[in-house]
Predict the structure.
Amino acid sequence: MDAAALLRTLVQTIDDRRWADLPALLAPDFRSRLVHTGESFDRDAWVRLNADYPGFGRMVLEEVVGSGDRAAARAHVTGTVEGERADFEVAMFATARDGAVADLVEVWADCGSEPPGGTRP
């Protein structure tokens, strides 16, 4: 499976909450880095992070591009924060090796944040 297909499957697996299926999509030496927080995770810790994340609702793939062992994707994530609906966008950059995701970089953003200067276009 190439990196683009892996990202499609990864997002669908998370959206379906099939946590037991996630490790099979990840290389044994998988590494994840969350750019916005500086955190890094190995395979088991990343699966736990996703499975145990409080308030998770949905993860919907918006687009994916890639070729061979490299791909990027954008997904919309919904959940609840302090009892209120919260919307997020995530960009994912994956490197595949031997049919599994070996490296994943994620960049998360809150939807509805005020742009600099406080005005929206």
User: Anything to note?
Assistant: The longest helix spans residues 3-15. The longest strand covers residues 84-97. The chain has a mean pLDDT of 94. The domain at 3-110 is CATH 3.10.450.50 (Nuclear Transport Factor 2; Chain: A,).
